[in-house]
Amino acid sequence: EILRKLGVPFRLLPERVRPVLLQQILLTMKAEGSLKAIDPIVEFNGTSQQIIELIDEFERAALSPADVISRLENNVESGSKYMELARIYERYWQELERLGYVDQRIVSFKLRERLTAAEDLELNLGFLAVDGFDRFNPLQLQAVQLLAPYCKKVEVLFDYLRPDDDPNNDYLWKDDSFKDLENILAGNLTLSGLYTGVDPVL
Description:
By secondary structure, the chain is mostly helical. Helix content is 46%, strand content 7%. The protein is built from eight helices and four strands, in the order αβααααβαβαβα. The chain has helices at 2-5, 18-32, 47-60, 65-73, 81-99, 106-117, 138-147, 175-184, and strands spanning 11-12, 101-102, 126-130, 151-156. α2 crosses α3 and α6 runs parallel beside α7 (138-147). The radius of gyration is 20 Å and the shape is globular.
């Protein structure tokens, strides 16, 4: 909705189509001779789904194909399986772009691109509610951080106890995510509703 308000049209690729699209990409790359390490398993059942899950991890980590390739170029050989997987990820984005589609997480990348490139952007989002996360991944954190300045109020529901109030360490696994939230909302964070047995409001 926000992207469309900003004049950025897009079509969302159905989740069930993604493995099919990736399978076509793998077969094309195999025919081109650009797959070596995973060539023997390209046509195995489940290969495309496993690579889709890897792509999801890259996207949740807020890493574009260029980010992944850049990191690998300094650490692995160009013909390694890691670089090959990064090139598949790159081709996946290219193919979506060619077809005029995005997946659910690329929407956030497009939002990041639009908001970071804009100067004097007139965008009034009013109230933003963020609900349902046990932890925030980097892409979600970026989205909250980028949208917050355009909102009059942001409320985040996040079930959490600070270490001093958590004798059984039940919430220890959420510490990093909570600290990330504190950092991106620094100076604008008010805690309420904590320790009541219901999701708190930040």
